[in-house]
Amino acid sequence: MEMDKVLLDTDIFSEILKGINPQVASRSATYRKVFGKYTISVITVMEIIKGLHKVQREAQIDIFIQGLHKLEVIQIDSLIAETAGRIYADLERRGQTIGCADPLIAATALHQKRVLVTGNQSHYQRIQALGYPLKLDNWR
Predict the structure, then answer these.
(1) What number is the average pLDDT over the span 42-66?
(2) What was the pLDDT predicted at 1?
(3) Largest CB tally within 10 Å, which of 16, 37, 40, 126?
């Protein structure tokens, strides 16, 4: 089975960490065998820490941070920020905003030429509808 390099959206990465969904677990295990590590955006790091800190799980934050070296974490550069700004403005003009994080993650996938693996298809399909060549997959 041919597999493309992907960028994991926060929802799917969170499911991988929890290990509850057997479909996600199976697809992620296959991916990891092929590519050796998962790829996330630095925005996903922020979202995971925000979620854990909100429920005061500081020990889990420490464990997460200690495991970051096992991941490929893509940083935001000015080109990604520019694309994200355009996506955000295009969505805002249509009255279809989806927050700041998703345009940044989508722009990262576009610039890295990665398929974005997400369970949140509806948000990202709005970006596709604007004409951005964003490729999506859902491991659920």
Answers:
(1) 96
(2) 55
(3) 40
Question: How buried is residue 104: exposed, middle or buried, by Cβ count under 10 Å (0-12/13-18/19+)?
Answer: buried
CATH code, domain with 15? 3.40.50.1010
How many residues does the structure list for the chain? 140
Q: What is the residue range of 29's domain?
A: 6-137
Question: Helix, strand or coil for residue 1?
Answer: coil
Q: Supply the DSSP string of 107-134, one letter for each residue.
A: HHHHHHT-EEE-S-HHHHHHHHHTT---
Specify whether the CB–CB gap between 8 and 117 falls below 8 A. Answer: yes
**Is 1 within a domain?**
no
Task: Name residue 31's amino acid.
Answer: Y
Q: What's the CA gap between 118 and 136, in Å, rounded?
A: 7
Q: Which residue has tokens 């893509």? A: 74
What is the rounded average pLDDT for all residues in the chain? 96
The domain total for the chain is 1
Q: What confidence score (pLDDT) does residue 3 get?
A: 82
**Sign, Cα dihedral of 31, 99, 68, 82:** positive
Tokens 């499911």 -> residue: 15
